[in-house]
Design a protein that fits this description.
By secondary structure, the protein is α/β, with parallel strands linked by helices. 30% of the residues lie in helices and 19% in strands. The N terminus is likely disordered.
Length: 270
């Protein structure tokens, strides 16, 4: 276990390939803007994490029935808002009426992705397109807002990521899809597989009972020129253990907690 005071990094972070990754490591990333502290994926959450000193924010996107790309995690409004219904079945005029309820009782509103990118021009965003229908609208928004240099796209779909890479090439920073993560893990175990497509392995510590993030995976990723960012980590001890493994970034629902751990190690770099 980490004692919270030292950092042992097993290998250097890989060389920078995208301006999105031009930052002192490790990256501190507010997951859904800080879903444990604020109304998730809202302007209010992003503003609060930025005020705390975060520069990197994670969000998700869905498409409304009339083609508006919104920052929201679930496919339906039911879990965290005052309304119900599948976003894909609702028009933007209906979706924008929903109040997003924070864990502390605070309230936010659902916003268009374009509005969020415009509102925070100095922030960098990790964006997860949650459905196939979001891919082309997301690409259009990134083009229209000239946001490619400050965006990384990660998804639970190799196909979606492949479509975006086909459109933008190396101009877009991308995460590894599930099959690519499996290739990276296989390589870390010594199997003869090549470098997977992408720039960042954004992974959980475990998938069920299977451990994904360990020293071998981090070292293999760095050898391939890939970063390792781990989600979603809120426990201070676990944050410290992952830093000791040399991970390049941590996504958290508790921005204040992550900041305190990094400050304690002299690693906070807003």
């Amino acid at each position: 276990m980490s004692d919270g005071t030292t950092v042992r990094q097993v290998s250097r972070p890989p060389s920078i390939r995208h301006s999105y990754l031009e930052h002192a490591h490790p990256l501190a990333i507010a997951h859904r803007g800080g879903a444990g502290d604020y109304p998730e994926n809202t302007l209010e959450a992003f503003a609060a994490s930025l005020a705390l000193g975060f520069r990197y924010l994670e969000t998700d996107v869905h498409l409304t029935a009339d083609g508006v790309l919104v920052a929201f995690h679930d496919s339906s409004l039911d879990r965290v808002t005052s309304r119900t219904g599948a976003i894909a079945d609702l028009r933007w005029a209906e979706v924008q009426q929903a109040e997003v309820l924070g864990t502390d009782g605070s309230v936010g509103r659902i916003s268009r992705l374009e509005e969020i990118l415009d509102a925070f021009p100095d922030a960098r965003f990790n964006i997860d397109p949650k459905a196939d229908a979001t891919v082309d609208p997301l690409a259009d928004v990134l083009d229209r807002t000239a946001a490619l240099p400050r965006v990384c796209v990660g998804a639970f779909s190799d196909r979606r990521l492949g479509r975006l890479r086909a459109r933008f090439g190396e101009r877009l920073c991308t995460g590894l899809g599930p099959r690519a993560v499996a290739r990276l893990r296989a390589a870390s175990l010594g199997l003869p597989v090549g470098r997977p497509d992408g720039d960042v392995a954004q992974v959980p510590v475990r998938a069920g009972k299977i451990r994904i993030v360990d020293r071998r995976l981090v070292e293999t990723a760095h050898r391939f020129g890939l970063e390792v960012q781990v989600w979603t980590i809120d426990d201070p001890i676990e944050i410290g253990d992952l830093l000791d493994l040399g991970v390049d970034g941590i996504m958290t629902d508790r921005p204040q907690t992550l900041r305190e751990v990094l400050e304690g190690r002299g690693l906070w770099a807003p």
